[in-house]
């Protein structure tokens, strides 16, 4: 009996309400069951279809309205006060509205709120993120959209109250008509706008726009959001219909909030496809903390909250103080069921008297049990406080001294265990982080914010720095005056160091520690933005080190890295601290010179860089010498975009290389034209082989002792269909850079092999054709002469029919690849000629190390041959040296009989030049051989 009485007393009120609701529901069901057909009602929404109204869709689609005997039509709204107009005119029986319904009621309009759906208003202000501390006061004097100026039911009221409380008078704002288009905020057409936090942040996030949200709740202004309402006439004329509609609607909201994905699919299939699925799911998730379906019964409304809303309107001057809003809130326990309530209250009063004695008897025992529970609770709290994995500190509100700190907090701060004395927590904070922390503490003390979270640095006694994330909340939030502060401290030093390392690796070159391509492009873009703003100019220098590859190949990549580090240092000493030096990769560097006042200063800096790089680089026990080629382009003179600026600087750099290196060159439109011509010519070259545009020319190599022609050099010509004959000096570099040189070289070999086979049969059995091989072709990775050797075997031509001409520069590369290829040529019987001998890296060690058969004296010696001249002496020395090494000598550029006679007298074996014949098409050369019977060689 005692147990029954206690339980009954504790739950009497809840049981009374449930019994009353159950009885009312039975009455409604009974009424509907006898009605025979469903009643027609209209629900007017305040906006277009979206998840904001999902509960009503659920009640309709899941049959909750049908079970209540209702046939419901849901209409979209064109503006915020459409529901009020529709309900008061009778076009709709129910509508959805904001908390401004209270103003309508108190202005004489007979509206009645049936249920609250949003326990907290979603209205807020959004503005561009500026700095680390959000501050709504930055919008003073700015352009702001608060809502439609002509719409009486809008969010401006609670936002105006919030702004006033934050010290921002609406009169100091430039208020614009609301467009409800987030692009206005993103594009900077307004400084702030009111938004619905359930959906509009998704638009800003998708645009990558940095923003801050300021909600009235942070200042203690807590309005209700969407409310279901009707009219007094509907309640008096159809009380059961109102009750049934409200119950079915709230049932629909419970279903919608627990079946979000199903409701999103329903909206997309039956109501609206204005928003995509991801956006609707975002809205559903954002509504959960506002509707609070788990913590609060959907539809619940508190008269005290409505009084709070009325007080805010009073402060705004829109309502008189002490106004009453009786009849505004719907009473779910009204009308026919009050008699049951009275009976239950009577029984409860009787039982209350009977249970009073039991209650008094149990009170003493309950107090004892409560005291024990408090003791154990304090003990558990102390245990958790001491053993917590994060630092916890209790701080005195005025002085900031520690009242209590757990062991983990002392460990993070690097303090010994024991009393903290008079130590203030601000004494531990890094000076650079202290102003921000003090600002947040002031705002917390003045109750502008409910708490804050900040990342800062603490200084330990050993002068070490530790990064921590601190959360600060007041312990006694309801207490007037200064409040104790509870700090939760987490060590995030490792996380910060990892983030710093990732940022460093993403933005800086690991070798030179200069900005990499990513940061270079970012800084260049920033410089361009500033230049557009203040009208200044920018210079971009594109620097490429000359002959760096030779250093890498001869001294190794490690010494090459040492050179790059020193080159970066030297370049950095030539510019201002405000300039940017970056390494794009390899041996390419760039310099950004912003805010140029004197264009001549660019010449001075570029020349200083050239001079600085010319000095020798000490690499271990060796010295290396490099120079630089610099391309310069100016913004906005040469281009308006980053891509075009870099492209033009690169073209100017190649122009500097082409002009002889160790110099700088400015971009000119002619360089762009030349680059386009090279691109078009390269494209034409790709079809030259298949289009039979390549032609083979031959120039005879004459035996100086007998005049016999048993050798010839194959020379390539390109007969372009529009441009005519294109010089090899123009198209061979393009073929090398594009990789087409490999296919072209194979075509030259095939054609030469076909003709040399014929000439060995018809002219002389030991006839030879010399083929020039490009360094790019010779050094390609994986390239061998297997294809050549198969072709020789298939045609029955010995390897001795071919001579491969290479340059001395190839012999600098002492890699196994070069040696293997030369050995493969030797094993196949193919001879090797060293072209342009005497103009490059001549060295007896090369001739001794590699299998070379011919030396070709460069035409620069032959051109000026005269008795007793230095060129004659050098030529004689080359001939004697070659013969001593068992090599034959071919002199190029023989144009006069005197040159021929001098070379023959010096013992030169062969001559080649215009004296004997110019290069001619293969058919003409074949005819020359057929008509010229050469005497046998000695």
Automatic annotation (TrEMBL):
Residues 536-669 form the GGDEF domain. Gene3D superfamilies: 3.30.70.270, EAL domain, PAS domain, Periplasmic binding protein-like II. SUPFAM superfamilies: EAL domain-like, Nucleotide cyclase, Periplasmic binding protein-like II, PYP-like sensor domain (PAS domain). Residues 452-504 form the PAC domain. InterPro entries: Biofilm_reg_signaling (IPR052155), EAL_dom (IPR001633), EAL_sf (IPR035919), GGDEF_dom (IPR000160), Nucleotide_cyclase (IPR029787), PAC (IPR001610), PAS (IPR000014), PAS-assoc_C (IPR000700). It holds the Pfam family GGDEF. Residues 678-933 form the EAL domain. GO terms for molecular function: catalytic activity. This is EAL domain-containing protein. It comes from Pseudoduganella plicata.
């Amino acid at each position: 009996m005692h147990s029954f009485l206690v339980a009954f007393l504790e739950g009497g009120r809840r049981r009374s309400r449930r019994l009353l609701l159950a009885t009312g529901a039975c009455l409604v069901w009974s009424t509907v069951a006898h009605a025979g057909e469903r009643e027609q009602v209209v629900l007017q929404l305040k906006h277009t279809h979206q998840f904001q109204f999902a509960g009503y869709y659920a009640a309709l689609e899941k049959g909750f309205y049908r079970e209540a005997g209702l046939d419901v039509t849901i209409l979209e709204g064109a503006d915020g006060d459409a529901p009020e107009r529709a309900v008061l005119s009778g076009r709709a029986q129910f509508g959805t509205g904001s908390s401004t319904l209270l103003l309508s009621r108190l202005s004489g309009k007979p509206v009645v709120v049936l249920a609250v759906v949003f326990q907290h208003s979603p209205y807020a202000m959004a503005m561009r993120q500026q700095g680390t501390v959000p501050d709504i006061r930055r919008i003073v004097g700015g352009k702001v959209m608060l809502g439609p100026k002509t719409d009486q039911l809008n969010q401006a009221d609670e936002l105006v109250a919030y702004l006033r409380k934050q010290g921002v008078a609406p009169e100091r704002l430039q208020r614009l008509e609301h467009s409800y288009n987030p692009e206005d905020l993103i594009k900077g057409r307004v400084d702030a706008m009111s938004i619905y936090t359930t959906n509009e942040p998704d638009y800003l996030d998708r645009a990558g726009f940095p923003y801050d949200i300021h909600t009235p709740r942070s200042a203690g202004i807590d309005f209700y959001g969407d409310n279901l309402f009707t009219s007094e006439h509907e309640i008096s004329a159809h009380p059961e219909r109102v009750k049934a509609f409200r119950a079915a609607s709230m049932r629909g909201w419970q279903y919608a909030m627990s079946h979000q994905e199903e409701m999103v699919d329903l909206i997309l299939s039956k109501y609206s496809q204005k928003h995509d699925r991801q956006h609707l799911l975002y809205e559903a998730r954002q509504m959960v903390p506002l509707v609070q379906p788990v913590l609060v019964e959907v539809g619940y409304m508190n008269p005290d909250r409505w009084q709070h809303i009325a007080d805010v309107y009073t402060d705004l001057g829109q309502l008189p103080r002490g106004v009453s809003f009786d009849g505004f809130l719907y009473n779910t326990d009204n009308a026919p069921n009050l008699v049951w309530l009275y009976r239950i209250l009577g029984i409860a009063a009787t039982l209350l008297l009977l249970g009073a004695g039991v209650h008094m008897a149990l009170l003493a025992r309950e107090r004892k049990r409560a005291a024990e529970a408090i003791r154990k609770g304090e003990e558990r709290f102390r245990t958790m406080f001491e053993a917590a994995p994060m630092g916890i500190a209790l701080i005195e509100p005025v002085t900031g001294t520690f009242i209590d700190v757990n062991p983990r907090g002392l460990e993070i701060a690097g303090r010994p265990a024991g009393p903290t004395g008079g130590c203030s927590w601000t004494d531990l904070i890094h000076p650079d982080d202290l102003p921000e922390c003090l600002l947040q503490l002031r705002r917390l003390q003045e109750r502008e914010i409910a708490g804050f979270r900040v990342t800062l640095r603490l200084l330990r006694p050993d002068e070490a720095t530790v990064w921590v994330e601190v959360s600060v909340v007041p312990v006694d939030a309801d207490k007037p005056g200064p409040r104790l502060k509870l700090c939760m401290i987490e060590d995030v030093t490792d996380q910060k160091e990892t983030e710093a390392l990732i940022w460093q690796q993403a933005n800086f070159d690991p070798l030179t520690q200069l900005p990499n391509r990513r940061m270079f492009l970012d800084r260049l873009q920033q410089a361009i933005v500033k230049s557009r703003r203040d009208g200044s100019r920018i210079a971009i220098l594109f620097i490429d080190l000359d002959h760096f590859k030779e250093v890498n190949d001869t001294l190794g990549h490690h010494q090459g890295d040492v050179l790059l580090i020193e080159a970066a240092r030297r370049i950095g000493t030539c510019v201002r601290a405000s300039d940017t030096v970056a390494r794009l990769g390899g041996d390419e560097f760039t310099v950004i010179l912003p805010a140029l006042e004197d264009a001549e200063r660019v010449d001075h800096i570029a020349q200083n860089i050239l001079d600085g790089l010319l000095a020798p680089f000490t690499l271990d026990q060796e010295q290396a010498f490099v120079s630089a080629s610099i391309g310069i382009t100016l913004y906005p003179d040469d281009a308006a975009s980053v891509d075009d600026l870099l492209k033009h600087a690169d073209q100017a750099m190649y122009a500097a290389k082409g002009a002889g290196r160790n110099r700088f060159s400015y971009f000119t439109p002619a360089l762009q034209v030349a680059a386009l011509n090279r691109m078009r010519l390269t494209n034409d070259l790709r079809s030259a082989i298949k289009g039979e545009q390549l032609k083979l020319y031959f120039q005879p190599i004459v035996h100086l002792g007998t005049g016999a022609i048993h050798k010839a050099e194959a020379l390539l010509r390109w007969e372009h269909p529009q441009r005519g004959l294109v010089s090899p000096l123009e198209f061979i570099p393009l073929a090398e850079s594009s990789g087409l040189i490999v296919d072209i070289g194979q075509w030259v070999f095939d054609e030469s092999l076909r003709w040399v086979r014929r000439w060995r049969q018809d002219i002389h059995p030991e006839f030879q054709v010399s083929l020039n091989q490009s360094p790019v072709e010779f050094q390609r990775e994986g390239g061998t002469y297997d294809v050549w050797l198969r072709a020789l075997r298939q045609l029955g031509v010995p390897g001795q029919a071919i001579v491969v001409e290479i340059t001395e520069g190839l012999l600098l590369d002492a890699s196994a690849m070069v040696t293997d290829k030369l050995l493969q040529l030797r094993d196949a019987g193919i001879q090797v000629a060293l072209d342009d001998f005497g103009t490059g890296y001549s060295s007896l060690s090369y001739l001794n190390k590699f299998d070379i058969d011919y030396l070709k004296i460069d035409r620069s010696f032959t051109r000026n041959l005269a008795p007793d001249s230095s060129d004659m002496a050098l030529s004689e020395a080359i001939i004697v040296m070659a013969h001593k090494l068992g090599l034959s000598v071919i002199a190029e550029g023989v144009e006069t009989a005197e040159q021929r006679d001098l070379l023959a007298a010096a013992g030169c074996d062969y001559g080649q030049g215009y004296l004997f014949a110019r290069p001619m098409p293969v058919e003409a050369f074949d005819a020359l051989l057929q008509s010229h019977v050469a005497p046998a060689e000695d």
